[in-house]
């Protein structure tokens, strides 16, 4: 039996928490020290989703402008894109639409898109409300979740939601 493989790309401004979300999912760890991602990294994990086993290739990207030119080529065969904003950073939320546009212009509707409000443990200092996040997802016709790489809250369910949305031919 061959295990079906899917490429999932993580997008969003610098420091929103892309690398940390991936690290929590992959290794169940969290590092409070910021290590900027240079260029693009990828990691793979085989997961069981209900009765199927699939392999996820997680593509971490750097949000810096100088790497943006690379993004279309990395989106080319993506099955899903996870676009993050930081719930304590309004600008990162304002840029969500631009990131989702990048995905849609490269992949049309062939790619699941999920918007994630990251750092939900910082809720006391949030500047983006839950309902604003949900509304944005509704407007852009994407999935949505908040999550915390620090506490782990909603991280597993978020990946599960993405995995369940992937096309599967039996
Ligand atoms: P990236 O540039 O999008 O990859 O962001 P990083 O994952 O490198 O995270 C940027 C900074 O935010 C780091 O200092 C992380 O420790 C911190 N961070 C990431 N996720 C969370 C989170 O869920 N909660 C909190 N409190 N801090 C986080
Ligand atoms: Mg990073």
TrEMBL record:
Keywords: GTP-binding, Nucleotide-binding. It comes from the Eukaryota. The keyword Transferase does not apply. This is GTP-binding protein ryh1. It comes from Blattamonas nauphoetae. The chain holds residues 1 to 170 of 221 of the full protein.
């Amino acid at each position: 039996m061959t295990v079906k493989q899917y490429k999932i790309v993580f997008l969003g401004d610098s420091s929103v928490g892309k690398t940390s979300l991936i690290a929590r999912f992959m290794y169940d760890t969290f590092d409070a020290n910021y290590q900027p991602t240079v260029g693009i990294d990828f990691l793979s994990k085989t997961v069981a989703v209900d009765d199927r086993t699939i392999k996820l290739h997680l593509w971490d990207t750097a949000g810096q402008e100088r790497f943006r030119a690379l993004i279309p080529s990395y989106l080319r065969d993506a099955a899903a894109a996870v676009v993050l904003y930081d719930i304590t950073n309004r600008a990162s939320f304002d840029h969500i639409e631009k990131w989702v546009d990048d995905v849609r212009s490269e992949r049309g509707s062939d790619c699941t898109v999920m918007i994630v409000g990251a750092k939900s443990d910082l809720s006391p200092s949030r500047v983006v409300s839950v309902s604003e996040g949900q509304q944005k997802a509704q407007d852009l016709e994407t999935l949505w979740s908040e999550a915390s790489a620090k506490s782990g809250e909603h991280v597993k369910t978020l990946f599960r939601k993405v995995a369940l949305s992937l096309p599967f031919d039996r």
